[in-house]
Structures are given as structure tokens and as C-alpha cells.
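Budget justification, computational time. The allocation requested in the original proposal was used primarily to generate C-alpha cells for proteins on the priority list. As evidence of use, we reproduce two of the resulting records. The first is shown immediately below.
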Amino acid sequence: MVSVVQSQLDAYVSEFPKQDKITFADLQQEGYLSKRQVKEAQDNGIKIKASKVVK
């Protein structure tokens, strides 16, 4: 799941390079992650810090 979130985060950053703090809500709102994927990531302790995905 970490690799899925990281790849989607990388794609999001490519489209919105000036956005500083990116959240799961941002990724979901723009269609990069589904609601189910966000829930699964959060349930697994995955976080977004400084444009990197950490667990």
C-alpha cells in the first residue's frame, strides 16, 4: 500500500508542484486515491510527510 500511495503522491506533486502540505483528502479530492484506499492507508498507519509516504 505504501508504494501505491507514494506513486499517486508523486503524480499529484507533478500536477500541483506549488502545494506545500499534501493530505490524503487532497489526493482523494483530486481522484488520485479512492475513499477505500485512503481508509486502508490510514488503518495501516501510513502517513504523508514532506511529500514522502511513511509507515
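The second record produced under the same allocation is shown here.
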Amino acid sequence: SEEKASLIIGDPKEELLNGSAETLIKEGYRLVPLNIMNPDNSIAYNPLELIKRQYILGNYSKAEKYTGVLTNQIYFDPNAKDPFWNDSASNLIKAIILALLVQCDLNNELEKFSMYNVAKMLSNLGGNTDKDENNLLDVYFKKLPSSHIAKDAYAQSNFSTGNTRGSIFTVAMGKLQIFLEQDIAKMTSTNTVDLRRFGFNKIINVSFDDTFRFLKGHYFFTIKDKNANEKVTEKRKIELDSCGNIEIVFKDTLETGSKIHFEINKENDVVKSVYELEIPHEVDDKNTHDEDIRFIPLKEYSNMETKIITGTYSNKPIALFLVVP
């Protein structure tokens, strides 16, 4: 049958969702409503998820770049008479996001990396002083090492300048108020769907250590079908990025028990890493949501393990309903 495209549908009154849900599910779609009006009936969406993913993969420059893109989207105002205030607020929130990210990672609490906690950090520190009348946010950032990823953004925020601090705080806090509402805070605290899914149904992300940066190699699958027969796919070339990462988009049909093989050329040797895959179970006429692949390392076939390996697998297109005012 012809491959169905994923859909993004504006539906402010929920009429389209209510009228077409059953039909779309029968047609093989996965339904995901993003409902700002009633967050209890919504998927979860954390705007910081992409930033966190790049940071976990060790690509700090991309994490910093994506943070800037996000804060510019929040604070950019083409009608502003003086862009200074919005630009300063944007840099301030960029600094807080990056500082919170590093702190959550150090505390092994990345689940707390959310816009709610960004807003709380701004409110608790930016709006208060110590006994010597020093702004607590200023004190916090001054204590960070000079090499900290958040330092430059804070310096560009002009927040440390006392006579502009109040106005910058007001502009910055004004845009974050929505994230302090309990239902919105809950909705944006985690992530239900990977936005890459709208273009790609099957993705594997692999991270090797830094010594693998820019190295080349290939991967292939050993595919086990429902009758336990195995076949080997063609070998596909890969090249790792500056952090030793690779994102693999594939179209192979896999069953649980299939394997993925990595062979990387390193210092006149071939480094091998093999994983058995547990593929999530989908029901054609049910709105199933589990798409995470489980990876089981097969040490008997490997002479190294990857640092991180994650993946999603689905044969269903997505229908996203935007229930927004």
C-alpha cells in the first residue's frame, strides 16, 4: 500500500480530532493531540528536549545554539521600539537554561530540566538579594567557573547592570508566566513524542567516545523474521561527527531478535559493536504509543560498547492535532 504521510492539523475547537480520531486510528495513524486548552488531554511536550539530547550526546555547541534559537523565538518582537530589552531577556533566559542543564546533569536529575524550573530559578534568584543587597542571580553566575557554558550568555544579558536589572527581569518573567501554571508545567515537564517522527519513523542514535570523532565505518542489520530465519542487510557507510555521534535513519522492517552491527575503522583496526534489538509492539487498529527500541549488548560479538545508543521504531505515520487558542 502507498506510504501515508504524517499530518499536522490546526484544530482550535477540537472538532476535527473528535470527528476523525476513530477513522485515522483505523487507517493506521498514531494520534497525538497537543492541547493547550486542556493539558490533561494532551501529549507531553518539553521545549528543552532537543537541547538536552545534544548535551547528553556531548555536543555542547549545538546545545548552546539550540538554546539561543528557543529563547529568540520566545522573546523576538518585530514591533518592539527598542530591541535591547527583549535581546537582554533572551540572553538571560539562555544563560539560566544552560546553567540549569549543567546543574541537573551534575545532580543526576535531568528529569528536572524543564521550563517550569527555568521560570522558578529566575523568580527565586533574579527577584531576590542577599544580606549585602547583592542580586542572588548575580551571585550564582559569578560563582560559576569562567569556562562554564552559561557564562557568555549571562554577560550579554546586561542583567548585572543594576539600573537595567528590574526592566529586564520584568520582560523575561512576563514570557515565562505560562510555564508556572500547574497544568502547563506538567505538560511541558517531559516528552511524549520525538518531533523527528514527523519525517522519519525509524531512527537510531549512537554515541561513541571522543576518540572516535570523524571516524568512518559502516553498519548493517541481521534481521530475524517471525519464523526465526535470518538475513543480512547491505552494509551502509557512516561517518561520525566531531563528538563521535551518528544519527541513523533507516526503513528496514525489523522484528524482536534482529541485531544491529557497527564496524568502525580505527587505527588500522576494525572496532565492532553488536546489539540485539527488542522492537516495540504495535497494534494496527489501536492508538499505541510505545516506540522505543531496547538495545541488548552482545559482548561475545563485540570488542567495545557504544557510550549511548537509543532508537525509535514505528510503521505508523503520526497525526498531530494542535488544539491551541
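A brief technical remark on that second record: The radius of gyration is 23 Å.
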